[in-house]
Write a structure and sequence with these properties.
The protein is 45% helix and 6% strand. It has 104 residues and is mainly α.
Length: 104
């Protein structure tokens, strides 16, 4: 996820930076015939997320997504609903991404 979450500032900032770097590298390397792809995913069942009580992606499913996508010529892969929602909300007003900030 790229959306900020309390207590996960370092992780979220690095994901946002990598998303931006992927886009920049894609533009920089395309004239040289190098295809740069990005795989964006939410929580996946790994040792890092073992203690989290949240729905998680199956790593085997995540691996298939870019393999199939590269064959199809895709440049970016949103592996789950969380990633698709974050990508969609990046262009939305801040209140859409963080409704808890709106005074009620």
């Amino acid at each position: 996820m790229v959306a900020g979450s309390a207590g996960l500032t370092n992780s979220q900032a690095s994901k946002a930076a990598l998303w931006s770097a992927t886009n920049s590298l894609r533009l920089e390397l395309a004239p040289h015939g190098t295809q740069v792809v990005g795989l964006h995913l939410g929580y996946t069942d790994t040792p890092m997320t073992a203690r989290l009580d949240v729905p998680k992606n199956d790593p085997a499913d995540i691996v298939r997504i870019p393999l199939d996508g590269v064959e199809a010529g895709e440049l970016e892969f949103l592996a789950d609903d969380i990633s698709a929602q974050v990508k969609h909300n990046l262009a939305a007003p801040i209140e859409t991404m963080y409704p808890q900030l709106v005074a009620g």
